[in-house]
């Protein structure tokens, strides 16, 4: 039996159950789904698991649409996390959840040789010593924006892809659908601990596709 253990292009949060707290709800952005374009955001949880350098790991939820409909993924997540369902006509300010503790279950998924961390469940954590934000995570809305390259800048073409089936190819040699696939399916899983190589590819993808990923 021949097994291929491909190198991961960035660090995925280890799998398992961890104590955590919510540190961000990202700004709404338009994403493409099989039902058309929709606005969505992500919850970001900082866990109590530490890296070798002492920093905390973070894990991102799947995109969530701002709907409390009975079948919405946001309502299902809140029901699991709060330990109860929302009452009829009961609303919620998700911003008020920042800092709230939780137990999170993380599982790994491998796509095109890259390992991603999926947030499978968010559960209540009623322990007397809850996890609190370390302060190292900076919310997306508070981050200083770096200057984007002009639209006419073609330097993105020479950036080499280091993930997936097109690993080793220059971005300029890929067809637009291939670049868009990387933008839609790989970039959303990057986090604050992405490597310089990851960030360079992300920036090149944004420049090549003329839009911002989510």
List the helices and strands and how they pair.
Layout: E1 16-25, E2 29-33, E3 36-40, E4 43-50, E5 56-60, H1 73-82, E6 101-111, E7 114-123, H2 176-185, H3 196-209
Antiparallel strand pairs: 1-4, 1-6, 2-3, 4-5, 6-7
Helix pairs in contact: 2-3
Instruction: List unreliable stretches of 5+ residues.
Output: 2-9, 146-152
- Gyration radius, to the nearest Å? 18 Å
| Overall SS class | alpha+beta
Shape type: globular
Q: What is the strand arrangement across the widest sheet?
A: 5-4-1-6-7
Q: In what range is the share of β-strand residues? A: 25-35%
- Considering DSSP H and I runs of 4 or more, what fraction of the residues is helical? 10-25%
Strand elements, count? 7
Order of H and E elements: EEEEEHEEHH
Largest sheet: 5 strands, antiparallel
| Total discrete domains | 2
Q: If you average the pLDDT, what whole number results?
A: 80
**What is the first-to-last residue Cα distance?**
38 Å
Helix count, DSSP H or I runs of 4 or more residues: 3
